[in-house]
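<goal> How does this chain fold?
<body> The protein record starts here
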Amino acid sequence: MMKKLDEQILNKELYTEVQLMILLEDAVYTERFIAKPNNRRVPAMYKIIECSYDEQDYGYYIASYKGRATPRQLTRYNFAVEVMLMIKSDVDIDPVFARKLLWMKANRFPMTKLAKMFGYHRTTLKIKYQTILERLVKKINSTFSFDRLDKILYKY
């Protein structure tokens, strides 16, 4: 009986950890589609449409359209920011370092490049990353109600 309970808790934590990594990767992806602050001096039609020239003109290029984030992506992005703000001194000694590490890993930077950037050995940084992730998952599971997690994290 006790083994099954421990196994269920472990499965829930592993599942939340995977979903948290997916959530952070989605937040990084969504950040690319969030509208930048606009310049009030530029006419409104140039915000979405870029000028293109005739094919024979020098400097011809195809106008590109940058999509916008959907409401669901923005909800997940806001939740990811909320989760990142949950990282405090109880999760890691240096919360700013922990946030940077999680965000850069979600950006899919290689661990060797991150280790050089932060001045750690690759395996040491990987252990720190896993420790931060485990502590954050435990904090998420203890603070949020399970219904809210189902709506935001698990419905992907």
Remarks:
- Residues 2-35+68-154 form one domain.
- The radius of gyration is 21 Å.
- Confidence is low (pLDDT under 50) at residues 45-52.
- DSSP finds six helices and no strands in the chain.
